[in-house]
Specification:
Layout lengths: L1 H15 L9 E2 L7 E4 L4 E4 L16 E8 L3 E15 L22 E8 L3 E8 L8 E8 L2 E11 L6 E8 L2 H4 L1 E5 L4 E3 H4 L12 E4 L4 E3 L2 E8 L4 H5 L16 E7 L7 E7 L14 E8 L6 E8 L4
Antiparallel strand pairs: 1-2, 2-3, 3-4, 4-5, 5-10, 6-7, 7-8, 8-9, 9-19, 10-18, 11-12, 11-15, 13-17, 14-15, 15-16, 16-19, 17-18
C-alpha cells in the first residue's frame, strides 16, 4: 500500500510538472527543450530543443520536423524546418528565420510554446512568437494526432495587436537536405529542371507557382507531394564532408503539404530551388533541388495547412 501511494505521488508530481502521463502517445522528456514526440511518428521542436544528432542546434525563427533517418529508428535529425512568413496588406513580407529579433537584434524571431491542450489521442500546442517588423503578429496552433503520427496540422491566427495580414505563409525551407527534385501534381510530376530551368548560381531561383487547378484534389482536400530522385541518397552524400550538416544518408521520404476541405479558393503551391547549399557555394550533389516548398492563400483566422512525411515502402 505504501508503494502504491508513493507511485501515485510521483505521477501527480509528473503531471503537475507538465510531463505526459504514462501510456500517452505524446512524450516530452524533461530537460531537453521545447518539443513533443508522437509515438511512431515525428517530433515537433523549436530551435533550442536538444536533438542528439544535432548538438549545434539550429537557427531561431524555425519549427523543426524531426524524424529517425537510419535503420532501427535511430539517427534523429531535422528532416525539414517550417518558417513563418507573414505578408501585410501593404505587401511587405517578413521572414521569421532572417529578420532580427525585436528583443535582442539577433537573427531570427523568437518562438515559444504557449498554452497546451491534450486528450488521449490529440495534442494541441500553441506556438507564440515575437511581433514582426512589418507589424504582423501571428501565432499558430500545432496539432499532433496519435492516428496520424507523421503529420502536423497547423492552424494560423493573428494576435490582437497584429497588423492586417494579406497572407501568413508557412514554408518548408530545407528541401535541399533530402534533395527533393520531384513535385507531384494532379496530372503530372514536375521535376526541378522542368519547373525551374534557370541557373541560380549560388542563390535562389525565382518561385515556380502552381495554382489550385493543377493540384491533386479529392473529397478530403488538396495535397502536393515532393520527393527525391535518388533511391540511395547515401551514394551522392558521400561527396559531402562527413561532419557537414548537409550530409544526408536517410531514406527517400515523401514530404507533403495538404489542406483539408473547405479549400481556400485561391490556394496555390510555390517552390524555388538552389544548386548550392544555403549560405555557401558548396554544390549540391546531383545538381539543383527544390529548397522552399509552401502552400499559400489569402489569410483568414484559423486557416489550416498540414505538413506530413511518408516513409518509403520497405
Amino acid at each position: 500500500m505504501r508503494e502504491l501511494c508513493y507511485l501515485l505521488l510521483l505521477l501527480a508530481a509528473a503531471v503537475a510538472a507538465g510531463a505526459a502521463p504514462p501510456l500517452s502517445p505524446f512524450t516530452q522528456p524533461l530537460g531537453t527543450g521545447p518539443h513533443w514526440t508522437v509515438r511512431n511518428g515525428i517530433t515537433l521542436a523549436l530551435h533550442d530543443a536538444y536533438v542528439p544528432g544535432e548538438p549545434g542546434g539550429v537557427p531561431r525563427g524555425l519549427i523543426r520536423i524531426v524524424l529517425p533517418v537510419t535503420p532501427g529508428n535511430a539517427g534523429l535529425r531535422s528532416i525539414n524546418f517550417i518558417a513563418v512568413e507573414p505578408c501585410i496588406e501593404e505587401g511587405k513580407r517578413d521572414l521569421s528565420e532572417l529578420q532580427p529579433s525585436p528583443s535582442d537584434g539577433k537573427p531570427g524571431i523568437k518562438f515559444w510554446f504557449g498554452p497546451l491542450k491534450r486528450t488521449k489521442d490529440r495534442l494541441r500546442q500553441t506556438i507564440r512568437m515575437e511581433k514582426f517588423a512589418n507589424g504582423a503578429h501571428p501565432y499558430l496552433i500545432a496539432e499532433l494526432r496519435a492516428d496520424s503520427p507523421m503529420e502536423v496540422r497547423f492552424e494560423v491566427y493573428a494576435e490582437k495587436d497584429s497588423a492586417p495580414m494579406r497572407t501568413c505563409i508557412l514554408t518548408a525551407t530545407m528541401g535541399n537536405l533530402q534533395r527533393l527534385r520531384n513535385l507531384h501534381l494532379k496530372d503530372r510530376t514536375a521535376t526541378v529542371s522542368d519547373a525551374l530551368p534557370e541557373d541560380p548560381g549560388t542563390g535562389f531561383t525565382r518561385h515556380a507557382v502552381f495554382p489550385l487547378g493543377e493540384l491533386k484534389r479529392d473529397k478530403s482536400g488538396v495535397i502536393v507531394m515532393a520527393d527525391g530522385s535518388e533511391k540511395e541518397a547515401w551514394r551522392l552524400s558521400r561527396q559531402i564532408p562527413e561532419r557537414s550538416w548537409w550530409r544526408y544518408e536517410g531514406p527517400n521520404f515523401t514530404q507533403y503539404w495538404r489542406q483539408p476541405e473547405p479549400v481556400d479558393p485561391d490556394l496555390r503551391v510555390l517552390v524555388n530551388a538552389r544548386k548550392a547549399y544555403w549560405s555557401s557555394s558548396d554544390p549540391i550533389p546531383g545538381g539543383k533541388a527544390f529548397e522552399n516548398f509552401e502552400m499559400n492563400a489569402t489569410f483568414h483566422s484559423g486557416q489550416i495547412f498540414i505538413f506530413g512525411v511518408i516513409r518509403p515502402a520497405p
